[in-house]
Design brief:
Low-confidence stretches: none
Shape: globular
Structural class: mainly alpha
Number of strands: 0
Distance between the termini: 41 Å
Order of helices and strands: HHHHHHHHHHH
Helix content: 55-70%
Strand content: under 5%
Length: 162
């Protein structure tokens, strides 16, 4: 299969139908090292020309440290708290300014007012493996909104153990 065809499978069209419940990890895991390098370069080039969280998350999965500067540039231009938290998590995973990324995620989570968005973000937040963030998520375990309480508990179960 040609690399461009593989790329289209790894980064499908940016619409609900193509991306609902989508995960590209199994596709990436089956690539050769050479293909991974080519895909990484294509992702960086694509990210330079447009904004797409899937590009950033895929580069993070590839552990692409050479994409950090491009990701940081995207972060500077983003206004949405949700996106900032996801990008901060990606940069954190790529070993970039961990304490700064924790603070950025924490502060932006406090700006979120939609409970359903908070539910999704719990699962990103616990991956920071920071006491500050874990305390924030834990503060929702007794929430009167049963969905918030249940999902905060479930996310905490997925938190990395030291």
């Amino acid at each position: 299969m040609k690399i461009k065809e593989i790329y289209k499978k790894i980064i499908p069209s940016d619409n609900y139908q193509s991306r609902r419940d989508f995960c590209n990890h199994h596709l990436i895991d089956n690539l050769s090292e050479k293909e991974k390098l080519l895909i990484e370069n294509m992702l960086i080039e694509d990210l330079n020309s447009r904004y797409d969280l899937l590009l950033i998350e895929t580069l993070t999965y590839l552990n692409s440290t050479k994409s950090i500067s491009v990701i940081e540039e995207k972060l500077k231009k983003i206004n949405e708290a949700f996106d900032k938290i996801v990008i901060a998590r990606c940069l954190y995973k790529l070993e970039k300014d961990k304490s700064k990324m924790i603070d950025l995620a924490y502060d932006n989570f406090l700006l979120i007012t939609n409970d359903y968005i908070k539910i999704t973000l719990f699962y990103y937040l616990v991956k920071f493996n920071s006491n500050k963030i874990l305390k924030l998520v834990k503060s929702y375990t007794g929430n009167k909104n049963i969905l918030l309480a249940h999902n905060s508990k479930a996310a905490l179960q997925e938190a990395p153990r030291e």
